[in-house]
Structure formats: structure tokens, C-alpha cells
Amino acid sequence: MPRYLSATEAADLLGVSKATLYAYVSRGLIRSESLGGQSRARRYLAEDVHKLRERKEYRRDPAQVAQDALHWGTPLLDSSLTLITDETLYYRGYDAAELVRTCTIEQVAALLWTGDLRGHSTLFTPQVAAETAIARLDSSLMPMQRMTIALALADDLAAYDLRPEAVARTGVRILGRLTSAATLQPFVEGGIAAHLHHAWKPDDSYIERLLDAALILCADHELNVSSFTARVVASADATPYAVVTAGLAALQGIKHGGNTERVEAFFREIGSSDRIERVTAERLRRGEYIPGFGHSLYPHGDPRAKLLLSLLAEAYPNTPEVEFVLTLAQRVSGIIEHDANVDFALTALAYVAHLPPGSPLALFALGRTVGWIGHAIEQYSSGALIRPRARYVGVPPIN
Questions:
Q1: Domain of 153, in residue numbers
Q2: Strand pairing partners for 82?
Q3: Do 335 and 190 share a structural domain?
């Protein structure tokens, strides 16, 4: 949804005249601001316009509005974690792109969990960065499978303490277990990106910063499927382990983070730049989806992908791998008129840096765990149970 609408767009959306629109503004129902310069034109906050439209629709058909509230794109819950705009996203008011340039994932976790970027130094310490029982994990499994099992094997009685500060400490232990499970190496101290660097690509001096960037860009994305799932589970006062387990389950779906596996397969199918158009055309002819492109929230392209691809090009300039992924992104975008999204960028990072299979989804999960813990803290604090109602459409009761 665009952040602002013109007078014509706002009036059309509400089904009213411009005069009525101006009356709504004067009554404080819709916020507007001047476009500046010589023009007297104004633009209108889209959020206010949509809320007013929803109120009008509710009066006409309450049942339909209740049903539509669970569909994609309609805000459901208040959250102070993430704001998404047409061009970028913000974590507690901080531009995520700026955080990528200046912070670590631990600092962003502290920001989302406590509101304080500086809180990471007391949260992430060797004493609380717990190690999972990696000897019990099957090395033949993909990282995401091992991460899910690692949480199921955990025995952490302190996780039943649902006070905000306790949940944050539990979040650190969960991240430690997940990181250890993803790499099959004990995670006792140091940063998550540093651990992944030494486990996956110790001879690459650039990869740690890129891994931190990927984790930060995946940390939260408002009420996506997995985060909403996590909040529902948290609303029942289940432990943070159950919250993150639920988030992992939702993330693995191919319409969510699991789409990275489709992108990995797309990369393998193409193989080289001279096959891009041919493979893409064949897929389109068969009516198949082109994975890794387009995002409904970003009409001008996914800013997370743009930034991560830009950082890749900076770190590995003029390499065949970077040339391939940038060429692939440009040519496919030219064919289907959608830009690369974060699924593509995570896969590109793994491709360029020669990371293990399944690492794009593992990075997605590790980063998003930070957001799930943040949502859990918010939901525990609210004390509200998320319990939608169903509209029965089955066989009527038999008398």
C-alpha cells in the first residue's frame, strides 16, 4: 500500500467527491500534507483513507469485514517493532539500511527486544549463549531441519519466565542453539555472524559483514505469516521455544521462507548467463512461477534485496558469481517486470560465497527469530489472547 494518495485517488477509494474528502480532512478523520512549491495540492495519508473506508464498510456489512480482516494486507494488531513503507523498512524508528551499515544482529536484537541498541553488551554474553546437544543431530539433515530438532531437544526451565527481560535472555539462548544446530559446531561466545563465518567460510574476510547484513534485513517484517503465527502462540502464554518452533514451521512453507529453496533450484536450472532467457521462457510457457521476484509490499522493488545485492557487488567486484547473479536479476526483471526480492538476495549471497546447501533458509530463520522473540515480548505484555471467530458454512444442524 502506498504511504500517500492524491486527492483523486483518495476520493475514488472512498467513493466520495473531493469536497467530501476535504470535509473529512477538516474534521480530522484524514491527515494530509502540502506537496510544497508553488502548487496548492496536497497528499493524503493512505492509512487514514483505508481506515475510514473500513469503518464505512463495517457499517454496511460487518460479517464481510470480519472475514476480510484475516486476508493479506489488512492490519490486525498494534506493534511498535517495524514500519514498512514503499521504499524501506524501519525497526523502532531506525532505518534498517542504516542499521545494516553500522550495527550487528545482536544490537538489532537488543533494539527490537528492549528498545535499546546498546543493550546487546549485557544480553549477549558467553554465560547465556547456550550450546545445543549437536552430537544428537543428524549431519545429513538440512540446517533448517536440525534447527527445528534442536529446539525440541532443549530443556530450559528458565523459558517459563515470561517477563520481558527474561524472554530476552531466553531469546539469546534460543539463538545460540539455532546457530549451533545450523553449523553443527558449538556456539559458546562471540557474534552469530562471526560463528557462521568461521563454520561456513573461514577463509573469506568479507563474509561476516554480509552475513550480519542478511540477518539484520531478515530480523522482522511486520505481521508476515510466521510472525503472526508466533504472536498467536505467544498469546496463549506458550514459552518462547514454542513460539520460535511455530515460527520455524510457518517459515518453511514455500509461500514464505521456503521459497528460497525454489530460488536455489532456479539458480541450478539456469547454470550460466546464456541460459537465463531460455529457462525463464520455458517456465513461463509452462505456466510456472518464477521464484525470487516481486513483493506485494514494495511496488518499486524490495529494498532488502537491493541493499544486499549492492553489498555483494561491493565485496566481490568483477567476480563471475556476482556478474551472474546481477545479470540474472536484471534480465528476469526485464522479462516479468518484477524486481528481485529478499529470497533471491539470500540465495545470491549463498551462491556467491559458496555457502552450504540450505543456508539461505537458515539465515532467514536465524534473522527472523529475532523478530519472533520481539513479537512474543509484545504479545506477552499485552495479555490478550488472539482468537478469531470462524463463520460456519457447512451442513446446517440436523434436527
A1: 83-399
A2: 91
A3: yes
